[in-house]
Amino acid sequence: MTNLSSAPKVWAHRGARSAAPENTMAAARAALEQGAFGWELDVHVTLDGVVIVTHDHGLRRVTDIALRPNMPVRASHVVDRLTLAQIRELDAGSWFARRDPFGTVASGEVGPERLASYAGEKIPTLAEALDWTSESSLAVNVEIKDMLGGDDDGLVREVVGLIRASGIARRVLVSSFRQNSLELFRKLCPEVSVGLLLDEKAMAASTQDIVARLQSLGAVALHPSIKGLFPGRIAAFREAGFEVNVYTVNREEDMLRLAREGATGIITDFPARALAALEAFKQEEK
């Protein structure tokens, strides 16, 4: 019988982004409200060197920058061509009601009052996100994004400083698809755990090769795409001594399957759904 503590931890992907605009403090609060273990967020750096929480290099998908006549031309609607002050002018919340990315508005799961509260939501800085996390019970997974030709090392150095200043290093897990960024982070900040993100294409490598990458990096975890995980792989990575936090897991049948296979964590847009599914897993195990 599996120990009940072996149920995977639930990480809210970009916050609970099925319930609130992704990578905002509203999404972080929703993650806490839904009972997640931690929240995952993404970071980029602005033109004036401030680390902010957003997933895309461009800002058009999750803000109203296209509607702002005082903003630079479209080619400059990217994080590292705008200052923090310019980015702070943007509304990063109203799009959620309009696009309803997970159908939670149409279903009534996210009601009118909550939707109205998202209007005018700002993109947070990493410092603000870490400050909020320090006051909450959540852990945080900081994903360092690829700067697409920008100053990747500069971003890493800023993230190191902010995590150290936060005083919650033990509750932080840093991840990236970019191995060079993780290598530099480990060199500068060995006290914080790191996880290597691998997409479906990278997961086509042999388990032995992936384990070698994790070992050379000094990582504690692999963060694989669910699409690259055939049966038995999780057990092999766990036996090699690594945690396995799988992204992005939104179907209940996948949550249950990953729990049965020994995943350490589930990164999901639906934390409450995951917790309900894992409750069923725990009942199975009794």
From TrEMBL:
Q: Which InterPro entries match?
A: GP_PDE_dom, PLC-like_Pdiesterase_TIM-brl
Record-annotated GP-PDE domain positions: 8-278
Q: What molecular function terms (GO) are annotated for this protein? A: phosphoric diester hydrolase activity
Give a Pfam family name. GDPD
**Which GO BP terms, alphabetically?**
lipid metabolic process
**Secretion signal span:** none
Judging by the UniProt lineage, the source's domain of life is Bacteria
Return the protein name. Answer: Glycerophosphoryl diester phosphodiesterase
